[in-house]
Design a protein that fits this description.
alpha/beta, 9 helices, 34% helix, globular, disordered C terminus
């Protein structure tokens, strides 16, 4: 994360990060603190975040985003990074209440809060919404909520009521991601299984591809969008497509193919043009990461 290219820190900016105790949020906060930001606050309900991800120099508040106006009667933040939503595709079918509370009511509160303070609003959407173009796919509550929020935010961008940018993440790995439980990332889960000599299950057909993106590359992209980005379509994702079976074979973990559940898309369509225009490109490849790891990453053993 050393090479930030054209990014110029603004340490005096007051920053709010939702989901700040999660994988991506904690990575962003860590970098902001390293860059000298003195007023960084996290809101996290700890459904996915963990206290072990806390960074010295950040103020952590345990709360739901729906409560943002109760926590801060006045919005005097310069920028909000809204990364704190329910964020699992297949699990969202059985977690409708959580999706509704977090991704609809929570995000609506954050949008209104950002408009009230006229601060920059960076919303993390998902590259999975591109699957909405597939009429044969059963679309998950998660993806539907992300598209709905994206459309609402873009509407207020066009009306001039809200300013900011929409970023899209794709299978982020590296650092503090979970290796166990319902919210585990596939990379961390496979590595943990390899270390424990366990076999993993891969949803059929196994040839479905993902664009695995390193957390350091992602944070560099987020910071560039924070300084220069306006509007939609900032896809911060690797250009390389890797199938789930290929990933398992890179790691060397045993696997078996199981029937696919609803919402399992075959590929991700990514448009890198707007990120490339900001001077961003990936610097770490998933295969190099796995080789350099030596299959030992203490952060994934927690």
């Amino acid at each position: 994360m050393e090479n930030l290219r054209n990014f110029t820190p603004s340490p005096s900016h007051k920053v709010l990060v939702t989901g700040g105790a999660g994988h991506v949020g904690s990575g962003l906060i860590r970098k902001l603190v390293e860059l000298g930001y003195r007023d960084v606050t996290s809101i996290d309900n700890y459904s996915n975040g963990r206290e072990c991800n806390h960074v010295d120099g950040c103020n952590y508040i345990s709360a739901d985003t729906r409560e943002v106006f109760d926590i801060f009667p006045k919005n005097d933040f310069d920028v909000i990074f809204h990364f704190g939503e329910f964020a699992r595709v297949e699990q969202s079918f059985s977690c409708l209440d959580e999706v509704f509370q977090s991704n609809y009511l929570g995000t609506l509160a954050m949008i209104k809060f950002a408009m009230a303070g006229r601060c920059k609003f960076i919303y993390s959407c998902s590259s999975a919404i591109n699957s909405m173009n597939d009429p044969d796919l059963i679309h998950s509550p998660y993806v539907i909520s992300k598209k709905s929020n994206r459309d609402l935010i873009n509407t207020y961008f066009k009306l001039g009521k809200l300013r900011g940018a929409v970023v899209y993440f794709s299978n982020v790995y590296g650092g503090n991601e979970l290796g166990t439980g319902a919210n585990a990332t596939v990379v961390a889960k496979f590595i943990r299984a390899k270390l424990n000599k366990e076999r993993v299950e891969i949803s059929s057909p196994g040839t479905q591809t993902r664009k695995f993106t390193d957390i350091g590359d992602l944070i560099r992209g987020v910071l560039l969008v924070y300084q220069f980005g306006e509007g939609d379509n900032y896809f911060i994702a690797s250009k390389r497509s890797v199938s789930i079976v290929e990933l398992a074979e890179m790691i060397g973990v045993e696997y078996r193919i199981v029937p696919s559940g609803p919402g399992n898309r075959t590929e991700s369509s990514i448009d890198h043009k707007r990120m490339e225009a900001l001077g961003w490109t990936t610097q770490t490849d998933i295969e190099d990461y796995i080789k350099n790891l030596g299959l030992v990453d203490l952060a994934m053993e927690q």
